[in-house]
Write a structure and sequence with these properties.
Number of domains: 3
Number of helices: 15
Largest sheet: 6 strands, parallel
Distance between the termini: 136 Å
Structural class: alpha/beta
CATH class of the largest domain: Alpha Beta
Radius of gyration: 37 Å
Helix content: 40-55%
Number of strands: 16
């Protein structure tokens, strides 16, 4: 009897151990990496990843975040998902040297658990007029008050330092990870993912399914990367890339119109234009800048037809440069095209357009080298006496010819007209 009890105890212990082992093997935490400005493509990637992680039964999802900020509308879309997530969401500002600035600060504050790695910072969430231009004092105050109320609500809902959150908006306050932990802006400072999982283990958080106790220690880490298509869309959402795409598109369409049937420049140009306009939906665009760029192309075309001694070309370069600067009229550097991209692009585009237009105009006035028109003016040699008809050798061929003059064999002749297969010639002087 005693031996049976020991056997049952050992069996139960083994089953419990096996169950615990299997459970540990099944537990996994999904990790996504966001090192970009917050735009509609990033918002879609985050919300889609959260839903997929929940459907996969993951213990939690970790968003590794490093962002200078981004669009308010995209940030709010992410925050809505974080306030009532289908599973626990951990925002981890990472790697060292990274930041959760502006929109990134609000996303971090909205997470179930806010964590940072040493050497990162959070804050600088004062709202700006992304569309550029002057804003009245009253409107600026309304925008600021709205942002203050929003971030205060996030901080209070997650039990974090609401007073500092207000200061991050009103005064653009920014603090490092260690200070953020000290004053209850975040919950954890972790050196790496394993450290983060150990520190989050056993914590209770609220999700759409109620209170959840995290069991993250020893959980398997599964990384999910952006798909190829989403990476491309995120790349072209960069203002510098969008700007270059627009210029390439305009050049391609011009070359296609100048050489109908070439196809390749037209196809490439159309693709670039479509991609550029997709990017313009994710970036605040000043369409006065677009009009100035189009005006510059008109001026370049006019330069080829009008003798302006370079004035129209200079005007085109100035219009293109000013339009390029105005195109993304935002006080935020990450939402503007860089001058190191604008200046070479403007110069290269201007040179290509001027050369192409000049060549096209000259080609219109160049004497035709083929067909009947190409024979006019050609010089040949009489191979028989022409009086009034005879034979001539012109452009490597023998022709029947006629002339009002008597031309002796061996004399030079010049073609003045072509009648059917007979040349009209005159004696070539000299």
């Amino acid at each position: 009897m005693f031996n049976k009890k020991i056997q049952l105890l050992l069996t139960a212990t083994f089953i419990l151990f096996l169950s615990t082992l299997l459970n540990a093997q099944e537990r996994q935490v999904r990790v996504i990496n966001v090192q970009a400005t917050i735009n509609p493509n990033i918002a879609e990637f985050i919300t889609h990843s959260i839903k997929m992680s929940a459907s996969s039964g993951d213990e939690a999802i970790i968003i590794e975040l490093d962002t200078p900020g981004g669009l308010d509308t995209s940030m709010r879309e992410i925050v809505k998902e974080l306030l009532s997530p289908p599973l626990p969401v951990i925002v981890y500002v990472h790697p060292g040297g990274g930041r959760a600035a502006s929109a990134g600060a609000l996303i971090t504050m909205a997470a179930n658990i806010a964590a940072m790695t040493p050497g990162t910072n959070i804050g600088a969430a004062h709202p700006v007029n992304i569309g550029g231009g002057e804003v009245s004092k009253e409107m600026n105050e309304k925008i600021t008050n709205d942002a203050v109320a929003f971030i205060r609500g996030l901080a209070e809902k997650r039990g974090r330092n609401a007073e500092w959150a207000v200061k991050a908006v009103k005064e653009s306050a920014s603090i490092p990870a260690e200070e953020a932990l000290k004053i209850n802006v975040i919950d954890i400072v972790a050196g790496d993912l394993n450290d983060l999982l150990n520190q989050t283990d056993g914590r209770k958080v609220l999700s759409a399914r109620g209170e959840v106790t995290l069991n993250t220690k020893g959980a398997k880490i599964v990384r999910e990367n952006m798909g190829f298509a989403r990476q491309i869309l995120n790349t072209i959402s960069d203002p510098n890339v969008a700007y270059i795409l627009m210029m390439l598109g305009l050049l391609g369409l011009y070359f296609e119109l100048a050489n109908p049937g070439a196809l390749f420049p037209g196809v490439v140009g159309a693709i670039c234009i479509v991609l550029a306009f997709y990017a313009f939906q994710t970036i605040p665009v000043n369409y006065a800048g677009v009009l100035l760029i189009l005006l510059s192309i008109v001026l370049f075309v006019a330069e080829a037809f009008v003798t302006s001694y370079g004035i129209l070309a200079i005007g085109g370069i100035v219009a293109m440069f000013l339009g390029s600067i105005m195109l993304f009229d935002s006080p935020l550097p990450y939402l503007r095209a860089s001058l190191t991209v604008i200046i070479p692009t403007v110069l290269a585009t201007a040179v290509l357009l001027i050369l192409a237009i000049t060549y096209a105009i000259r080609a219109q006035f160049r004497k035709t080298k083929t067909g009947a028109e190409g024979m006019i003016g050609e010089v040949g040699e009489a191979r028989s006496r022409i009086s009034p008809t005879g034979k001539v050798f012109v452009a490597g061929e023998y022709w029947d010819a006629e002339s009002n003059d008597v031309i002796e064999e061996g004399e030079k002749v010049r073609v003045t007209a072509l009648k059917g297969l007979k040349l009209k010639v005159t004696r070539e002087a000299g």
